[in-house]
Specification:
Elements lengths: L1 H23 L10 H9 L8 E3 L4 E6 L2 E7 L6 E8 L12 H10 L2 H8 L2 E6 L2 E5 L3 E6 L4 E6 L3 H8 L1
Antiparallel strand pairs: 1-2, 2-3, 3-4, 4-8, 5-6, 6-7, 7-8
């Protein structure tokens, strides 16, 4: 009976520890979240670089190989307004809703919900060389060069489009 009690105690303690770890580790980081959440999340993504604050850019950024990732924020410890990815040196990777390679990269970095939302998003407008799309959950911008992609909150789409004009 004593061994059974120890086993149950250890088993329950292990399950509790796993539950706490899963609850604390963010599944993804998205616009309108706190930058500390995004920085912690980025550390869990093998594709992403370590993010460092850049006061001139008003955000956090980093480069890993040919991938550049950034998160713009309202203040150094504030809320993320948008996140962006740029990949250099790969002519086959264009951030369009129909490019399977780009959608797969977004799925690997974020998750299938974000990748599918982007893939099914609808065209809204073009400002200069940038095209804006609206999904069910978020809004997206991609540069006509195709190498860059930005995710913004849906409710800031119109403001972002005006800013780029």
């Amino acid at each position: 009976m004593h061994k059974s009690y120890k086993f149950n105690y250890l088993f329950n303690a292990t399950l509790s520890a796993i539950a706490v770890i899963l609850a604390v580790t963010p599944a993804n980081a998205l616009p309108e979240q706190n930058i500390s959440t995004v920085v912690k999340w980025a550390k869990t993504r093998p594709q992403l670089p370590t993010l460092r604050y850049n006061s001139e850019a008003h955000g956090y950024e980093g480069t890993k190989g040919k991938l550049y990732f950034y998160a713009d924020i309202t203040s150094q410890n504030g809320t993320v307004t948008k996140e962006g990815i740029t990949v250099s040196g790969d002519d086959r990777l264009k951030f369009t809703t129909k490019n399977i390679k780009a959608v797969k990269l977004l799925q690997n970095i974020y998750n299938s919900n974000i990748a599918n939302d982007f893939q099914k998003s609808g065209y809204v407008t073009k400002v200069g060389r940038d095209q804006f799309y609206r999904g069910q959950k978020f809004a997206y911008l991609h540069h006509c060069s195709g190498a860059g992609w930005v995710i913004i909150s849906d409710n800031s789409l119109e403001k972002s489009a005006r800013t780029y004009k």
